[in-house]
Amino acid sequence: MNFALYKETLSVRSVRQLLVIGLIARIPHSAAGVLLTLHVVLTLDQGYAAAGAAAALMTIGIAIGAPWRGRRVDRAGLRKALIPSVISEALIWAIVPHVSYQWVLPLVFVGGLFSLPIFSVIRQSLGVLVDGEQRRSAFALDSIFTELVFMIGPAVGAVAATSGYSGAALTAVGASVSVAGVFLIWFNPPTRSEDPCTAEESAARAADDLAAAGAAMVASAAHVQEAASELAPAGSRLAGLRGHVVRNFAWFTVSVASVFVVAAGAGMVLSGTDVGIVAILERSGHQTELGIVFFFWCAASVVGGVVYGAMHRPVSPLLLLLGMAALTIPMGLAQDTWTLAILSVLPGLLCAPVLSAASEKVADLVGEERRGEAMGWYGSALTAGVALGAPVAGVFIDGVGSWAGFVAVGAAGVVLCLAGLVLMKVRRAVRVR
């Protein structure tokens, strides 16, 4: 391990600024999930399954919107891509506290669709600012800062909701995220490396690109004419559509897909654990002690992130997720706040390493010209897992008991990882043959 990597990484001023901005901007986001859950359960008098459904719709909206937002960052730049989020965050979360549960569902979906893509933007920019071993340290620092956020945000949200101020707190979250978006637009962190070259080199490259484009157009026209003489018009359109899809998703390899599966599994386990912690404390009358459990859970993740970021070699995200999911299951044995806090330490140690390893893998596998879109899909996979984990845990909590939420998402994560490891082994065996 080389802990000096952190000093080297933090010596880069733009990295320090980006991490601090991410820390501040994520605090209201981190409180939104707990606030929405407790608003539905306590203020609207619905069950945890209904709260899980609302959280699921919000995260589905995020999952659908993230790739589109990432592509907008790649094509139009960060500032133009964030304007819809700045407007929608303030508007949607000002309306949600004043409507019935039936209206909450479509509103949180739209809110998720235009959610500020702070997580993917920070990761994309870090992938540009650093490389090599520093990239692992930077992503680990990002995960550590995220855990610090989750020590603050959910605890504050729980206190506000249990004190009867869930509506005002949701409105404040929207306003805070909107302000964070304005600040991010002002800072405008880089999302693509600068390519330093002289004016003569730029002119030469432009001429080469123009010539190559002309040759490609001529060749393409010849191929199209030849294809048109042999195929029916419908077949030509189908082939053109297929070629367009292939070109746009050339970056989407089997390795990238496996990282997305890990992201989805991590989101499922984390969101299910989140709902389980809230449920077990609320039903035992200790909801005001939520901050204690989140402190232990997130502090363990910080420690795990520090250790992982100093390592010379990466660890498979799939193996890290397997450990985190398996260690989540014993949390169902907790009988009070302190046993729950202590049992959260072991899975917490692997939380930041899972997310850090997955983010690093995406940055390594996908080029900068499509990395924004790839990070968007990565975020979609993560939030799709969150969308699945919250209602699954909610159903088991309502139908079986508070402890069952941890067992359900933990066991599902273990099964997912074991299936992934078997498929990887089969793939390697086929390659050898």
TrEMBL record:
Pfam families, alphabetized: MFS_1 (PF07690)
Assigned GO CC terms: plasma membrane
Span of domain Major facilitator superfamily (MFS) profile: 228-433
Major site of localization recorded for this protein: membrane
Localization, UniProt: Cell membrane
Gene3D superfamilies in UniProt: MFS general substrate transporter like domains
Domain of life: Bacteria
Membrane topology: Multi-pass membrane protein
Keywords: Membrane, Transmembrane, Transmembrane helix
Keyword match Membrane: yes
GO terms for MF: transmembrane transporter activity
UniProt-listed InterPro entries: MFS, MFS_dom, MFS_trans_sf
Tagged with keyword Chaperone: no
Protein name from the UniProt record: Major Facilitator Superfamily protein
The species this protein was found in: Arthrobacter cupressi
